[in-house]
From TrEMBL, chain B:
CheW-like domain span: 15-154
Pfam families, A to Z: CheW
Record-linked Gene3D superfamilies: CheA-289, Domain 4 (2.40.50.180), SH3 Domains (2.30.30.40)
Protein name from the UniProt record: Purine-binding chemotaxis protein CheW
BP GO terms, sorted: chemotaxis; signal transduction
Top-rank taxon: Bacteria
GO CC, one annotated term: cytosol
Length: 720, 170
């Protein structure tokens, strides 16, 4: 199977799974499935089933089939008693199963986990549901439906063989390169023509998918292949036809009779095989010429896959590109590989630097260049816009990530016997794709924590005069260059005493207890191995997790703050810079070297007065700023740079704020604020450097390299 | 597939071809296929906490590349850079590295039959020399770039894991 095919398959299936999950959760909330939902789920499952079968992932396709059956039943017979919660469970379980399989496939494995248990459970469930609703559990819905359809349409639809429709697209057009000798019936020497009918075992289920498997395995070995019914996967009556009349194959091949028979004998669940060789294709009962296929292909427009725009159906298989256009709401979309976007982003970054190199070129110093300045401003403006639009390309709404939390809240409340609902605010806020990916885990941990530790049991809530159902509000907004995500619950709030006690026990108190602010106390919950929960539950209490939250968010350059009011709930606020690749930085010079410090860490810079910097007996330097004593480090000392200014009164001191501490770094001179493109330090070197406080490098306007200082790392060097 | 083919053809035409450069009194050779380009010496940005032979990083048209002084790399006293000093940019497993050498000479074809393995000396100073090529009266020391850069990466990794282990122990 071609790699792009797999990619498209994974991509599409994942989209369907997401859609399925949302619909299922939404339906459960409403307490039932609307007709539209049923159709949506049915269609999604049907498509997954079809494409999985095409890719020969039987476990996935059979599972999809069994779930589809439930919705088929609901759709056709509209039973009165529908247990929405139980069905949602089934859908979600199936979604989970498929998701895992997709992961596996994505990682280069084969989706081979058995879905039998789920399948059987689903089947039993459907049976019981039919019984509950007074229907015959063994009723053959597809037959019933076809009969209905037939009577409605005057017998038209009942005979699928009479509606030859385009099928070729899904199976690779059965070698369209070899023109059918249909009209003349002439065959070249050594070619055999067969007519075969395959009967599947009674009750093997999913005959259409099995038939598809036959086509798939056969098409490699035959010259030309036609079969009845033509539309195996799209036509709902096909199953029936195959079941009753057998799956009929007509093909020309190099194989002789025995080989062809042996080939077909391998079919799984084969009950009976009829095969005969004929001398001429004209003798075959069914042998459409290429022209009729082409015409029917054009005429055929009944779309079974709703997510695919009709234009794609007319494409020849060769023209099918691994970029599925997702139609729907009219917006034209294309799918682009992320690495292409990354490349584009890199290039724009280069251009920002190149622009600075031109406009701030030392050759221009001191020249009066009005027109040049005008043109340069224009260029700057366009570059800025370009940068914004490229960044916008990488921006995705938080919606998907936020909606995943619905599932978590649902699962947790169900297991814990609590009542809670999740309210999403501002989920259309867009963030960089990278951020979106990295925020998912932290959010999950925090939401879990809110439900597990925050929201009380319903009884307790009622007693406290609160609404029985707790609320978790997940909100996002843009604030300046940051995105602010808040997770707010109306639960019991954090227990300061318990946290303190635990902190004492773990020995992570950094200050005397009386000096700790509330925020500092709350932030202990992010320490590794910290948990106030006595009992470890399935979801939380092990103390792993919250420290992951912090480290994940820090890796995005963001920070986490917790606020809490006893009895009223707690709020976790996450602030993350919108983009990581381009940041604003203050560049400083130290001797011949250049350093850049992200501007948001700098709280102020000043030239210290004579004697303002003093030493303690160990030789560590510090300075008094606004009543607090801040350590001072000299960059030339730290990085061993010759020819730097040693006298603080001649240099400049930058006061940096990282974590909850402030410290000063001494440099020679400020070079100015500039938008910089963060480039990683070459691997060869970063392997040798350990904790140096250098997080990357960048190019300055004059083409020289500046090292980016990560104040967080420097903070760790100083204080640990 | 196409790419592979091209690559193979490339390798064929580049077989037995070496870029020679001088380092002190010796002439060294490096497989032409790993050489990306040759540039003059330029401003080097010093980075902290690296071995002495890593002089720092340079800006090659927007790409940031580490440069290594080959004199120091072979544990010899360093030499002042002049306008003959060159940086040979090579690609070792997709990592670009610049080698600072006294000067580059030419591209030579040294057929396999003229290449002999180095003697196995005890004071294995020549572990970075893969073989020695004969050119008329002179010799060219053929550099084992694989060992030169992958191996000390390896030792770096070892260092790190050792450190991590000791950290865990405390």
């Amino acid at each position: 199977m071609a790699e792009p095919m797999v990619e498209v398959f994974i991509f599409e299936t994942r989209q369907f799974l997401e859609q399925l999950e949302q619909i299922a959760l939404g339906s459960e909330e409403q307490g039932g499935f609307s007709e539209e939902d049923v159709n949506e789920i049915f269609r999604a499952m049907h498509t997954i089933k079809g494409s999985a079968a095409m890719m020969m992932f039987d476990q996935v396709s059979t599972l999809a089939h069994s779930v589809e059956d439930i919705f088929f039943y609901i759709r056709e017979l509209k039973p009165a008693k529908v247990d929405a919660t139980a069905i949602t469970d089934i859908v979600l379980n199936a979604v989970d199963f498929m998701r895992i399989e997709m992961e596996k496939l994505d990682a280069g494995g084969t989706p081979d986990m058995s879905s039998e248990e789920l399948r059987n459970y689903t089947k039993d469930f459907l049976r019981n549901m039919k019984l509950d609703n007074g229907h015959d559990p063994d009723i053959d819905l597809r037959k019933a439906k076809n009969a209905k359809k037939a009577s409605e349409a005057g017998g038209d639809a009942a005979a699928p063989a009479t509606e030859p429709e385009k099928k070729q697209y899904y199976i690779g057009a059965a070698k369209p390169a070899t023109p059918a000798p249909a009209a003349t019936g002439a065959t070249s020497g050594g070619q055999h023509i067969f007519e075969a009918t395959v009967f599947f075992q009674q009750g093997c289920e999913m005959e259409e998918v099995r038939a598809f498997g036959v086509v798939n395995s056969l098409k490699e070995k035959v010259k030309e292949l036609h079969y009845l019914p033509e539309k195996i996967l799209e036509d709902e009556s096909a199953t029936d036809t195959i079941r009753n009349m057998g799956f009929r194959l007509f093909f020309t091949t190099d194989m002789n009779f025995d080989e062809a028979k042996a080939e077909l004998d391998q079919t799984i669940f084969l009950d009976r095989l009829e095969i005969k060789e004929v001398a001429n294709v004209a003798e075959l009962e069914y042998w459409p010429s290429q022209e009729t296929i082409a015409i029917t292909a054009l005429e055929n427009s009944e779309p079974i896959k709703p997510a695919m725009p009709p234009v794609q159906r007319d494409l020849t298989p060769a023209a099918r590109k691994p970029a599925p256009a997702k139609g729907g709401d009219g917006a034209q979309m294309i799918t682009v590989r992320v690495d292409k976007l990354d490349k584009l982003m890199d290039l724009v970054g280069e251009m920002v630097i190149a622009e600075a190199m031109v406009t701030q070129n030392p050759d221009l110093k001191g020249m009066e260049l009005d027109n040049f300045a005008k043109a340069a401003r224009q260029l700057h403006k366009i570059n800025g816009e370009l940068q914004d639009s490229v960044m916008a390309l990488r921006m995705v709404p938080l919606e998907g990530t936020f909606k995943k939390m619905n599932r978590i809240v649902r699962d947790m409340t169900k297991k814990l016997g609590k009542k809670a609902r999740l309210v999403l605010v501002g989920e259309s806020t867009e963030v960089d794709k990278n951020i979106n990916e990295h925020i998912s885990d932290p959010l999950m941990h925090i939401v879990r924590n809110s439900v597990d530790h925050g929201i009380e049991m319903p009884e307790v809530r009622v007693e406290a005069g609160k609404e029985e159902t707790g609320t978790v509000i997940l909100s996002a907004e843009n604030a300046g260059g940051e995105v602010v995500i808040k997770i707010k619950d109306d639960g019991g709030g954090l227990n300061k005493e318990k946290i303190l006690e635990r902190a004492r026990k773990n020995g992570i108190l950094t200050k005397p207890e009386s000096e700790l602010t509330d925020r500092e106390i709350y932030s202990f919950i992010f320490a590794p191995g910290f948990s106030t929960k006595e009992a470890v539950t399935e979801f939380s209490g092990r103390g792993v997790g919250m420290d992951v939250v912090v480290s994940n968010i820090k890796s995005l350059g963001g920070k986490v703050i917790v606020d809490s009011e006893p009895g009223l709930g707690s709020t976790t606020t996450i602030k993350i810079p919108l983009t990581l690749a381009i940041i604003e930085g203050m560049s400083v010079s130290v001797g011949g070297s250049r350093f850049t410090i992200p501007i948001n860490y700098i709280s102020r810079s000043f030239r210290p007065d004579e004697g303002a910097i003093f030493r303690d007996p160990d030789g560590s330097e510090m300075i008094m700023v606004q009543g607090t004593c801040c350590p001072v480090i000299r960059l030339y000392d730290m990085y061993d740079i010759p020819d730097a200014i040693h006298e603080p009164t001649e240099g400049i001191l930058l006061l940096l704020e990282a974590g909850d501490a402030r410290f000063g770094v001494l440099a020679d001179e400020l070079l100015g604020v500039q938008e910089i493109v963060v480039k990683p330090v070459p691997k060869y070197i970063s392997r040798m450097m350990k904790t140096t406080g250098i997080s990357g490098c960048t190019l300055l306007g004059d083409g020289s390299i500046s090292l980016i200082i990560d104040p967080q790392q420097v903070h760790n060097i100083i204080f640990d | 597939m196409e790419d592979d083919k091209l690559l193979m053809e490339d390798e064929d035409t580049q077989k037995d071809k070496y870029l020679t450069f001088t380092l002190g009194n010796e002439v060294y050779g490096i497989d032409i296929k790993v050489v990306i380009e040759i540039i003059g010496i330029q401003k080097i940005t010093v980075v902290p906490e690296v071995p002495e032979y890593v002089k720092g990083i340079i800006n090659l048209r927007g790409k940031i590349i580490p440069v290594v002084d080959m004199h120091l790399r072979f544990k010899r006293p360093g030499k002042e850079y002049s306008d003959r000093t060159c940086v040979i940019v090579i690609d070792v497993n997709d990592v670009l590295i610049g080698l600072i050498v006294d000067g580059v000479s030419e591209v030579l074809t040294i057929p396999e039959k003229n290449v002999v393995p180095p003697p196995e000396l005890k004071a294995s100073q020549n572990k970075y020399i893969r073989s020695i090529g004969k050119i008329g009266e002179g010799v060219v020391l053929l550099l084992d770039w694989m060992k030169l850069f992958s191996e000390d990466d390896q030792s770096l990794f070892d260092d790190m894991s050792a450190e991590e282990a000791s950290e865990e122990a405390t």
